[in-house]
Amino acid sequence: MRSQLNGKHILIITSNTGIERDELLKPLQALRAYGATVTHASSKGGTTQTFVGDTEKDQTVESDVQLSAVVSSDFDALVIPGGTVNADTLRQDAAALKLINDFVKAGKTIAAICHGPWTLIDAGVIKGKTLTSYKSVRIDLENAGAAGWVDAEVKACTANGWTLITSRTPDDLPAFNEAIAKTVAG
């Protein structure tokens, strides 16, 4: 199990602030433990600020690269952490939206947790998908054309040529990380 993602490259994208700490760090650590090479790209590159519960400033994390410098063809999957500020900032980032659309066009897996699916709305890629998210994002997803919303710890939906994996909150991270690993491993 610990080597099931050997040779796989996974990209995690964030803004530079407002990131829910565990939704960045736990997938980063878990996917590396599964054997993947994981790259963290942030909007501006450099230092990113994490939070706990969207309100308590926590540790800073150095990203590996600036978001605009990454190319989707270098990666097998994309992960979008939550945090309301993070997701709201990413959904306005042209490089993030382009990258998401490039992953979709290539039929690659995208995983988003908590408020992360907000970014998918602005990328215009959730039509026809059944997914989950933080409960307050539900109506936004439905209004943007999602096929359905479920209250589940993890939801994988393969439709329109690509797979979307979503989860609700940091409590769902073990199932979220496992679903990503299983899907990317094939």
UniProtKB/TrEMBL annotation:
UniProt cross-references to PROSITE patterns, sorted A to Z: PEPTIDASE_C56_PFPI
EC supergroup of this enzyme: hydrolase
Extent of the signal sequence: none
Keywords on record: Glycosidase, Hydrolase
InterPro entries in alphabetical order: C56_PfpI-like, Class_I_gatase-like, DJ-1/PfpI
Entry EC no(s): 3.2.-.-
Entry's family note: Belongs to the peptidase C56 family.
Name by which UniProt lists this protein: Stress response protein YhbO
Species this protein is from: Pseudomonas fluorescens
